[in-house]
């Protein structure tokens, strides 16, 4: 299982026909937030693969949209979904895409009145609901139920690759979420390395990786 994983920084050359110079055996596009939805849509379409993502704090608000009879709806009325066409929004959900099971928590710590921002307490509540959904999904599938492969977030766990300026604090609750879900990976954006090397971190048995920019990742199924 091979994926193009992107977050926060648009790679201009990939928003052209040069995207076809990427490996031909890619199975999936994964977005960790703060990228134009048109960019995600282009990448998935050009590579002819599915796309799963969570929104970042600079992305439009996607809450309240539903699908009914092939139409996008909001507040009971047809509405154009602002997200990437065909993309799967994993925020607050457990989704299976491209052979992997994702648990998603988008957004950042609240620092102004913009969308996709949460206080530590709000994100903790969202994380608890996510864990319950993962457990229910596994229970419903019975003895052979799958675990979460990837916890996809925009912000990192607190004190695990975050920064000390308030907008770039990580979320405390992600440590308990990792402990509960035990994913193989936590992939996040939000923290720009500015050219510095960013080593992976390990929390329990979970590898935490900053995916700002783009990279090709392989996942064992």
Automatic annotation (TrEMBL):
Residues 27-193 form the Calcineurin-like phosphoesterase domain. Pfam families: Metallophos. It comes from the Bacteria. One of its GO terms (molecular function) is hydrolase activity. This is Metallophosphoesterase. It comes from Amycolatopsis coloradensis. The lineage of its organism: Bacteria, Bacillati, Actinomycetota, Actinomycetes, Pseudonocardiales.
């Amino acid at each position: 299982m091979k994926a193009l994983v992107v977050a926060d920084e648009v790679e201009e050359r990939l928003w052209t026909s040069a995207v076809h110079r990427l490996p031909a055996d890619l199975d999936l596009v994964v977005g960790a937030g703060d990228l134009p939805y048109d960019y995600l849509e282009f990448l998935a379409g050009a590579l002819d693969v599915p796309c799963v993502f969570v929104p970042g704090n600079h992305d439009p608000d996607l809450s309240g949209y539903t699908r009914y009879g092939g139409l996008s709806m909001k507040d009971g009325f047809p509405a154009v979904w602002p997200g990437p066409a065909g993309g799967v929004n994993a925020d607050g959900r457990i989704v299976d895409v491209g052979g992997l099971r994702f648990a998603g928590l988008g957004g950042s710590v609240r620092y102004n009145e913009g969308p996709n921002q949460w206080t530590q307490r709000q994100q903790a509540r969202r994380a608890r609901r996510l864990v319950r959904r993962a457990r229910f999904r596994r229970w419903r599938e019975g003895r052979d139920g799958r675990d979460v492969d990837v916890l996809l977030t925009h912000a990192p766990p607190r004190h695990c690759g975050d920064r000390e300026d308030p907008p770039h604090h990580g979320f405390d609750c992600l440590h308990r979420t990792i402990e509960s879900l035990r994913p193989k990976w936590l992939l996040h954006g939000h923290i720009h390395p500015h050219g510095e090397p960013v080593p992976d971190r390990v929390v329990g048995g979970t590898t935490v990786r900053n995916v700002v920019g783009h990279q090709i990742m392989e996942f064992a199924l």
